[in-house]
Task: structure prediction
Amino acid sequence: MTWSPNDAELDAVARTLDAHEPARDRAEQNRTALLAAAATRAQMSRRSRVPYVAAGLAFAAAAAAAIWVGTRPDHGAPAVAVPSAKQVITPIGAARFERVTDWADFVVRLDDGKIAVQVAGLDAADRFRVKTADAEAETRGAKFDVSADQGRIASLDVREGRVELRRIDQQVIVLSAGQSWAASVKTVERDVIAPATPPVVASNDVAAEPSAQKHVETRPEPSAPKHGDALPQPSAQKRVEPRPEPAQHADARPEPPRLDTPAPAAPAVAAPRPGEAEFRAGTAALRAGDASTAARSFASSCTLAKREALGDDACFWSGAAAKRAGDTATARAALTAFLHDFPTSARAPEAAALLGWIDYDAGQLDAAEKLFHQAEHDRVPQVRDSAQRGLTAIDRKRRAP
Amino acid sequence: MSEGKLLPFRRVEGSVDELSDRALVSAVAEGDQAALGALYDRFHRDVYRFAARLARAADADDLVQMTFLEAHRSAPRFRGEAQVKTWLFGIAANLVRNQWRGEKRKQRAHDSLETLPKRPPTSPGEAITREQQRRWLAEAIDRLTPALREAYVLCVVEEVPGKDAAAALGIREASLWRRLSDAREALRAAIEEMQR
Result:
């Protein structure tokens, strides 16, 4: 018996060919590299125009100066201002941000992740602000890193210059070079009821990198260790005391930044929370590509911090890291325990989808189907997509001869 | 919070995730990094699958990155005449054509010969399963010339309309149909050979 397909049959079979799926880690690396390359290209493009613009302006200015000097011999030639980028914004790892308005009132909205910002000294009429849902950081010239989690400001690290941070219903804080600020305990309480950070997913694996869903002041930021990210911040984060100024609501038109304020008070450091050190170790190991060690560290953190704010993140990641390490049995046990212990966690659908793929790979289609159904209506598109791909794969597998 | 003037390509409300495909490309053309990230998030799987069919799966990641970098560069020239996905496929196909043939193609063919069975694992009289048909067809597609492969994958596997596919590949529509016909003939011949 031979197979001699006609055109229609040939094409029909072609449409059922298995598709390669990108590996999640590699896709994330690609994304980071792409954004970095695009940013570099944009900067080079701007720089490459500068000599021509400068030359043109210099020529025009020289001509104007010659006329001007000729008519006003008591004055020197005017200075030539070469336009250049006032701001450079670079994502650190995966970050979601967008420019809302352009100069003279440049506003960047930061939703998630960390960005490095460099702002040249501004003219009196210019403003530069980074906004999150709950705060805004304004500078008149500084280099700083700012991060957000779920649309809310998570940290601010000033390397040069000064930055004024205004949070809703909070006192204004001014940070100088070398000072950092991290989300406070108040923020933790708020974040507990906020939805989880949408994961960055690809392929069937829906687990995003660990993210700081809940921060405790002076805790290390267990922020997403995406490839290309800096290492986690040390736990001795400087805590900047707010200036003794009246609270200012971020919705109100902000006062111009007062960058001449004295430096804030000395930092205060609190003791680490249970499981925090293990979580940090897990994050570092995962970032280093050692998923096995990461899984063990997250498992320890999960045990120690189960009743803490960090608990569900740690327990989720003990399973996700184990899966990444190829330790299916541990991953299955950890994710099953996570779903039992934290059924209402925002991570639960993601864990269900991960577990679903483990069951699918083991040929346990009924169990996998149930799990995918738990995740198919998740608010995070990537989790939904993964679950729907799982259900499609199950359907295809069942119908295959 | 007070907002200043809004840029023309931005919405007043919402994130880049809510922009249409074409609006995303417009935002990328304006140098918006977030839009580029969103474009990648939205289409990288499609581009990966397409690239993996045209080149080695091992090369697909690099092709994806190059495709989006090229999209970033050429976004100002995107006129919106084709779907954004088709436009990206066209970029990927060009990259495969220009940079990934030659030695890599030969190596790929060599790899295929090493890894794929030369004869189907069937015995005379045994029913041919759909799985066997898929395996034969996958290998036959792999043996197509690059020009026929990109036409067949784009039109048949990815189901891009002929006019858009021709535009994406930079060829006339009549040429595309001819390539499709040639591709099907070549596939049938390869499948027959595999069954001998």
